[in-house]
Amino acid sequence: MQISFQAIGGGSSPVGGPAFTGSASRLAPVSVTPGFRALVGGALTVRAQRDAEIVAQGDPADHCYLVISGCLRTVTLMEDGRRQVGSFLMAGDLFGWELMGDYDAAAETVTPVVLRRIPISALEVLAERDLNFARRLRQMGADQLRAARERMVLLGRKTALERIATFLKEMAARLPADGGGNITLPMSRLDIADHLGLTVETVCRGLTHLRRTGAIALDRQDFRILDGSALDAAVHQTLH
Amino acid sequence: MQISFQAIGGGSSPVGGPAFTGSASRLAPVSVTPGFRALVGGALTVRAQRDAEIVAQGDPADHCYLVISGCLRTVTLMEDGRRQVGSFLMAGDLFGWELMGDYDAAAETVTPVVLRRIPISALEVLAERDLNFARRLRQMGADQLRAARERMVLLGRKTALERIATFLKEMAARLPADGGGNITLPMSRLDIADHLGLTVETVCRGLTHLRRTGAIALDRQDFRILDGSALDAAVHQTLH
DNA sequence: CGTGGGGTTGAATTGTGTCAATCAACGTGG
DNA sequence: CCACGTTGATTGACACAATTCAACCCCACG
Questions:
Q1: Cα(A171)–Cα(A230) distance, rounded to whole angstroms?
Q2: E strands in A12-112
Q3: A189 has pLDDT over 60
Q4: Which residues from 174-203 of B have any strand D atom under 7 Å from their CB?
Q5: For residues A226 and A214, is the Cβ–Cβ distance under 8 A?
Q6: CA B90, CA B67: separation in Å to the nearest integer?
Q7: What is the radius of gyration, based on Cα positions, of chain A?
Q8: B-proximal residues of A, 53-92, CB under 8 Å
């Protein structure tokens, strides 16, 4: 896959507007720090269409990216093609800043995206000057570790149905809903499967099961939680 | 389970001696920083026997611990008792410093241990003054994230035999070997199983399989890698 | 010299994967 | 506007890897 984004110059429009409501993990987004806002304001804007590779596994991590709009996935590939999607990145998420070395996973676009690309070195300079920002970075690192550990429990110990139910609740918390409470999943069933350590078929069966038991409404990419407690409860059942 | 360690006063013996050879993940241990050595030198020494809980899941993370000797596990429990062992901690490892909030997992001793307990606040003060140390902390955070992501691939996409082989190679890299290349695993089969997202029986069968195929020698807690490439190769086979 | 807690092995079961067919949605070109 | 091919989603039948259930072994320790 080729990198295929068009850089369109150092944007100057302020960041932190309405695009950021619905940001990640119920925390204030990185952009709250004035110094960081300035940094982002001067950063290169990057646009890319669907299924573009923004960074490759093994690339030196000299830039990080702030997601303005759209959705990305981080992908780790095994030599034989088995794939693990580590996380999905949404508007407001910053990625690639924590690594100190090479990227350990590729970042690919799930939908068309708009990003701001920031040199890591600029981030470090800012962190040294702005203690508030440094603290926020550490907070983000801690959050990522916490999330990674939760994911280990999910992948190591949860059943297929539990994983799917957990995923839906996660997405419901992160993605915006329309008036009727409907949420549109940006990613394919394959992406979901590779995120949950399952196959496409199992994901489908799980979703169908949740729909049939009345926990969710489902229509292609759109879903709505009808009965949150049923989602929690369904969790110990089997699929047959 | 009750906390059951005996504090034996602020130790003054220097840290960084032979106990640290064979430290974590082929990186220089934290103790290389002079400021940190001083911090550790003044820290409270904590001893605990086997199966003691050093920190509980949900406790405020106001202290972190440097492992001087022995082995610990980090444990996440689900309400119904399913257990996930996130990682094993060996001599030279520092844990509990990255969290900014509550511990997201318990830390329990696998063997009798000797630890140094350091207030997080002291760590932060040091990090602000000693840029080298701050950088090392960030490096450790990055390493943990990397390890967590590798673990996701293992738990999400690898077969039982692959997980077991991977685990053995990890342990061979972290634990000291005696003259004959023999390594003693400090943890039980149950701990291994909960670390790999498997059952005790599957771990046993996997180990037996590797022994029968000549990849390893195995006698209770002791093992030796006879054929490293067989370990890698065995990886795609089934157990029957 | 029992006793009990790991560890190992075997047989049966089952949750999830694999393989395959069908369907729905969409773009394309005649 | 409609056949056509393509791609992703869904469903079914079957296979199999790993779990579950159970028995047994082996030491360590009272």
A1: 17
A2: 44-48, 53-55, 63-69, 72-77, 83-89, 94-95, 106-109
A3: yes
A4: 197-199, 201-202
A5: yes
A6: 6
A7: 18
A8: 76, 78, 80, 82-84, 86
User: Is the Cβ–Cβ distance between B20 and B84 less than 8 Å?
Assistant: no
Rounded to whole angstroms, how far apart are CA atoms A111 and A90? 10
Chain B residue numbers with beta carbons less than 8 Å from the beta carbon of A105 are 149
**Token couple for B127:** 């990090």
Contact check, Cβ <8 Å, A149/B105: yes
Q: Shortest CB distance from A86 goes to which of B82, B152, B197?
A: B152
> Is this model's pTM higher than 0.85 or not?
yes
Q: How far apart are CA B100 and CA A41, in angstroms?
A: 29
Span A207-240, pLDDT tens digits: 999 999 999 999 999 999 999 998 888 766 666 6
Question: Could you read off the pLDDT of B191-202 as tens digits, one per residue?
Answer: 999 999 999 999
In the stretch 113-132 of chain A, residues with CB closer than 8 A to chain B read none
Alpha helices by DSSP H, listed for A32-188, are: 34-41, 120-129, 131-157, 160-174
User: Could you read off the pLDDT of B44-90 as tens digits, one per residue?
Assistant: 999 999 999 999 999 999 999 999 999 999 999 998 999 999 999 99
